UniProtKB/TrEMBL annotation:
Transmembrane segments: none annotated. Keywords: Aminopeptidase, Hydrolase, Metal-binding, Metalloprotease, Protease, Zinc. Belongs to the peptidase M1 family. Its EC number is 3.4.11.2. The keyword Protease applies. Its cofactor is Zn(2+). Residues 54-226 form the Aminopeptidase N-like N-terminal domain. InterPro entries: Aminopeptidase_N-like_N, Aminopeptidase_N-like_N_sf, Peptidase_M1, Peptidase_M1_aminopeptidases, Peptidase_M1_dom, Peptidase_M4/M1_CTD_sf. Residues 315-462 form the Peptidase M1 membrane alanine aminopeptidase domain. The keyword RNA-binding does not apply. It catalyses: Release of an N-terminal amino acid, Xaa-|-Yaa- from a peptide, amide or arylamide. Xaa is preferably Ala, but may be most amino acids including Pro (slow action). When a terminal hydrophobic residue is followed by a prolyl residue, the two may be released as an intact Xaa-Pro dipeptide. This is Aminopeptidase N.
Length: 584
């Protein structure tokens, strides 16, 4: 009977992970697809001479036509004396004019760059404004990103998807992860049969004959890749979030044919929002809105205040909402640190699993993540420089998403909930990081400051290092009042000498007693003596799957028993000395 129950448990874990795993695959494939351009794009040093202050995008589009006409007004402050300013812009989009203070100025356009020349030059710290008029047929990218026209239910639809370098395919911008725009206006003119969606809040909607112009405004710092537009025959419904002295709406833009299911599936967003606000602080854009816009894509995209959604599964809703804190409020400052976006978004979807389905489902969730992580012996969470031209590595579900998520969970178990969540809130609210950029060392510094302990070894092993440990544990009970445990470890990759870790055990007594203990293992052959007040029948290593490991063994320390001249009874031999169980 025990084996039957165990088999059912394994089957349920497999089914549960297969479902959540497939949803993660869909998310990751979406991230991977929209990043294909990363292989062909190098950081543009020519755009590093100025600090963007604002953009006003005035766009004319029709979902039935793969074409865009625009006028973008950009305000910036120069960081050094210069007579040129460069924007990223696809050669497919032809610039008609560039003006400043009503006067035309010279420009050249080649190699996906727009270079604007100021005859009199610009002095350091001076502020200038330019207006760029352009139009053309945007690139059609195989990955389904950039500027996309398609259909749903035979109705034309249009959307943009710019992570990491698709913005230049539809407007003149600055694409690198080094300069957030302080404020944007997005003004979209489209046929009045459609609704136009973008970041922030609607200031106005004005009809003009057969067209309608929708003015969106977003007043938080934002990188170019998180600006998006979507246009089709959306239907709209909302939920409201109420906080302490504030409220904001979750506004859902969905296809007419999807509305019934979408209204049902998106209800959970309210619970998820309240969970995340309780753990990580107020929704970062509460003065505006949160929302979903349905689009024809596998997975989603976390545009600030408006996630574009390929479906409304709970895990996708959780993942994209989590990005509003991790990725949008605080953005990784290089693709080396992509785990700060994706690892946290993945882990927060696990917290939703725990919150709504209970601890056992969360244990199964962690178990599935560990199985995927340990399917290979190599690979670091941090993306090494030599891997930055490999999109598959940057958006690796095993490393950036799953291992990143489990390492975050291990930090939580190491530091304890109070310290961990306070440290994360401090990181998100740091004046130098909030609505700006952050890297791995800055997260580490905040957790160290909050906890008062060094995490250098942990980050070296688990973030920058590769692989995982395999434990060999031997125990014996020479006295009913205590248990002795000896620990050894092997590493799957030579780049880590030893995984110093707090290792959890569940000690089980012959009368069903239980005691959870955690041992700080720092070297091979380390021995521990732990007080217990019952006779032990079994010890389970990592009972709740809180630790990335594989091929662990645990059993009675026969040599220690022999030295004490303690011989287990025949009955206990079956349960102890011959039980060397492989847990993972």
């Amino acid at each position: 009977m025990k084996n039957t129950i165990l088999a059912i448990g394994f089957l349920w874990t497999f089914i549960a992970y297969s479902q959540s795993g497939q949803e993660l695959i869909d998310i990751v494939e979406g991230e991977h697809n929209k990043a294909e351009q990363l292989q062909d794009f190098q950081a543009n040093q020519h755009t590093a001479t100025y600090d963007l202050l604002s953009h006003k995008l005035q766009l004319e589009v029709d979902p039935a036509k793969h074409y865009i006409k625009g006028e973008v007004t950009s305000e910036f402050r120069v960081l050094e004396n210069t007579d040129e300013i460069v924007f990223d812009l696809s050669d497919n989009l032809k610039v008609a004019s560039v003006t400043t203070k009503g006067e035309h100025i010279a420009f050249t356009q080649e190699n996906n760059e727009l270079t604007i020349t100021f005859t009199k030059g610009i002095c350091e710290n001076a502020t200038e404004t330019v207006t760029i008029a352009y139009e053309g047929t945007p690139n059609k990218n195989a990955g389904g990103d950039g500027f996309v026209t398609t259909t749903h239910n035979n109705t034309p639809s249009l959307y943009t998807l710019s992570e990491p370098y698709g913005s230049r395919d539809w407007w003149p911008c600055k694409q690198d992860l080094n300069d957030k725009i302080d404020q944007i206006d997005v003004i979209i003119t489209a046929p009045k049969a459609y609704k136009a969606v973008s970041n922030g809040v609607i200031l106005s909607e004005e009809e003009n004959g057969n067209f309608v112009t929708t003015h969106w405004q977003h007043n938080y710092p934002i990188p170019s890749y998180l600006i998006g537009i979507a246009v089709t025959d959306y239907e709209v419904f909302s939920q409201t979030i109420k906080g302490d002295g504030y409220s904001f709406d979750i506004v859902n833009y969905v296809y007419p044919e999807s509305r019934d299911k979408a209204e049902e599936y998106t209800k959970v967003t309210v619970d998820i929002m309240n969970l995340f606000q309780g753990l990580f602080g107020e929704y970062p854009f509460k003065d505006e809105k949160y929302g979903h816009a349905e689009f024809e894509y596998g997975g989603g995209m976390e545009h600030s205040t408006i996630s574009f959604m390929g479906n409304f599964s709970r895990s996708l809703i959780a993942h994209e909402l989590a990005h509003q804190w991790f990725g949008n409020k605080v953005t990784c400052d290089s693709w080396n640190d992509i785990w700060l976006n994706e690892g946290f978004a993945t882990y927060l979807s696990g917290l939703v699993e725990n919150h709504l389905d209970g601890e056992q489902d969360f244990i199964n969730w962690k178990r599935g993540k560990i199985a995927d992580i340990t399917s290979s012996r190599n690979g670091s969470v941090y993306v090494q420089d030599e891997k930055l031209d490999n999109v598959g590595r940057i958006f690796s579900s095993r490393l950036s998403y799953n291992k990143g998520a489990m390492v975050i969970h291990m930090l939580r178990t190491k530091l304890g909930d109070d310290v961990f969540f306070q440290g994360i809130r401090n990181y998100l609210n740091d004046e130098e990081l909030a609505y700006g950029y952050a890297n791995t060392s800055q997260l580490q510094a905040h957790l160290e400051k909050t906890s008062g302990e060094s995490l250098k070894e942990f980050f070296s092993d688990w973030i920058y290092g590769e692989g995982y440990p395999s434990y060999n544990v031997a125990w014996y009970q020479g006295d009913q009042r205590e248990v002795s445990i000896k620990m050894n470890q092997e590493q799957s990759n030579r780049k880590v000498d030893y995984f110093e870790m707090n290792v959890p055990f569940l000690v089980i007594g012959i009368q069903g007693e239980e005691k959870l203990i955690t041992l700080d293992n720092t070297f091979n052959g380390q021995e521990f003596t732990v007080a217990v007040d019952f006779e032990i029948s079994d010890i389970i290593l990592d009972p709740k799957y809180d630790l990335i490991s594989k091929n662990n063994t645990i059993g009675i320390d026969i040599e220690a028993v022999a030295e004490l001249e303690i011989k287990p009874s025949i009955e206990n031999t079956a349960n102890k000395t011959t039980l060397v169980s492989t847990k993972k």
